[in-house]
UniProtKB/TrEMBL annotation:
Keywords, alphabetical: Hydrolase
Listed PROSITE patterns: HD
Record protein name field: Metal-dependent phosphohydrolase HD region
Organism superkingdom: Bacteria
InterPro entries: HD/PDEase_dom, HD_domain
Molecular functions per Gene Ontology: hydrolase activity
Pfam families: HD
Domain HD: 63-184
Length: 291
């Protein structure tokens, strides 16, 4: 199970009560003049796929809202990390990659009726193809274009190659962090609601307070576990909480810890002697990162 697949399943099944109304494709609020043409281009492109059919447009709303949220998180990273503050090109590339990272989702859903890459096409690659077709980055210098496209094409990979250019790696990691931060919002809604967890959302895991040894080991060692080790919804919740340790930037960890979504998922875990010391340690980690 890939990182991208997990994000797809959550995003596709986001509770409707969380989703925006029809004007979701409006541009994000901002005060960055050189981004204005890109906000307009994004909004116009998204609107071009709306059909007036409620269910179809609901799913496009979902992706437009997600893109806005990812941009906001990316801006937080750009404003809070000296690596991006020190270089306007890196900062611009990150913001562009965040805004456009899911651009291909609109054509993907329009053409295939799904957000599943396995059942259609790789949406990151489609985003890059659409951007090149529309020449959306023609006004940017060559370095910014290259960094932005690298961030987009790598955002849904399970892992990014460490041998790549340092600036491209930094942009890709920041986009991935911003993407995860918004998906945590959706995860918390599914995993902490009343009633059983949707088995599709929980990736086929069985509703049970039992925890698998490999998943618990990863959680206690402060590292991201493997989806293949999961057997129960408890495993799944622990793995989601482990995302805290897979975030790359201090802003990302502070945001993830401070927004309350991880704490809510943690509170939904079964109250067992086996989990208690690990949950207590994780609470301390959340408090430390949120401070």
């Amino acid at each position: 199970m890939s990182y991208g697949t997990v994000l797809i399943r959550f995003a596709f099944r986001a509770p409707r009560r969380m989703m925006p109304a029809m004007n979701a494709c409006a541009a994000p609020k901002h005060d960055i003049p050189d981004m204005e043409p890109h906000f307009r281009a994004f909004s116009e492109y998204a609107r071009s796929f709306y059909s007036g059919e409620a269910d179809h447009d609901f799913h496009l709303d979902l992706k437009a809202e997600h893109s806005r949220n990812v941009f906001a998180h990316a801006r937080g990273i750009a404003d809070g990390e000296e690596f991006f503050l020190a270089d306007h090109g890196r900062r611009s590339a990150l913001l562009l990659a965040a805004l456009y990272h899911d651009l291909g989702r609109f054509r993907q859903y329009d053409a295939y009726g799904t957000f599943s890459d396995a059942q259609s096409v790789n949406h990151a690659h489609l985003s890059v193809r659409e951007m090149k077709r529309l020449r959306l980055l023609d006004g940017e210098d060559e370095r910014v274009r290259g960094l932005a496209l690298a961030g987009i094409v790598l955002h849904n990979r399970f892992a990014v190659p460490r041998s790549m250019d340092a600036d491209a790696l930094a942009v890709a990691k920041a986009v991935r962090d911003a993407d995860k931060l918004d998906i945590l919002r959706v995860m918390a809604a599914h995993l902490t609601g009343e009633g059983p967890v949707d088995p599709v959302v929980a990736l086929g895991t069985v509703a049970s307070p039992r925890v698998s040894p490999a998943v618990l080991a990863a959680f206690s060692e402060r590292r991201l576990g493997f989806y293949g080790d999961m057997a129960t919804t408890t495993d799944f919740k622990l793995l989601v909480c482990g995302w805290l340790y897979d975030l790359n930037y201090a802003f990302s960890r502070k945001t993830a810890a401070g927004e309350g979504y991880l704490a809510a998922i943690l509170e939904s875990l079964p109250d067992t002697d086996e989990l208690a010391p690990h949950v207590a340690a994780y609470r301390k980690d959340l408090a430390a990162h949120a401070a």
